[in-house]
TrEMBL record:
It comes from the Bacteria. InterPro entries: Lipocalin-like (IPR024311). This is Lipocalin-like domain-containing protein. It comes from Algoriphagus halophilus. It holds the Pfam family Lipocalin_5. Residues 7-131 form the Lipocalin-like domain.
Length: 147
């Protein structure tokens, strides 16, 4: 099911991880940047990265040094695929088709959702010792496609 409230582009406001002991962490810093898009055809994509990541020495990403690649990988996550909204359980399921983290390809990522004013709040239950919460602000609304 597609929910028209999801459709559009959203900008990351905050990404926090709550630990089992109640402490809060910002995995990519308090100034992380990101964007998530949902379209009316059931497609979605998301990218999140650390702000102000260091530049690499080479202009060719395939010629980057291993330490540069490791730092870049640890400061960026992206995936895309299909999505389904389950309004009765307040869940959205991201069906991952491609990802910067290869282990997620073919998996479903389940998020609880809540709309508050112009914000979309996505959260997880505890995954191991971590509970994720991402706050997004709508920046673009896309019209529903014609059937």
């Amino acid at each position: 099911m597609k929910d028209p409230q999801f459709i559009g582009a959203w900008e990351l406001q905050e990404w926090t991880i709550e630990k089992e002991d109640g402490s809060i962490e910002f995995p990519y810093g308090e100034d992380a940047i990101g964007k998530i898009n949902y379209d009316g055809h059931g497609q979605m994509s998301v990218m999140i990265m650390k702000n102000n990541r260091p530049l690499m020495l080479s202009e060719d990403p395939l010629q980057s040094q291993p330490n540069e690649v490791l730092a870049a990988f640890k400061g960026f996550i992206a995936y895309s695929g299909n999505y389904e909204v389950h309004p009765h359980s307040n869940q959205v399921v991201h069906q991952i088709k491609m990802s910067s983290f290869p282990n997620w390809v073919g998996q479903n990522q389940i998020r609880k959702f809540e709309f508050r004013d112009d914000q979309l709040i996505l959260s997880t239950d505890f995954i191991g010792p971590n509970k994720h919460k991402l706050v997004w602000r709508k920046i673009l609304t896309v019209q529903n496609p014609k059937s």
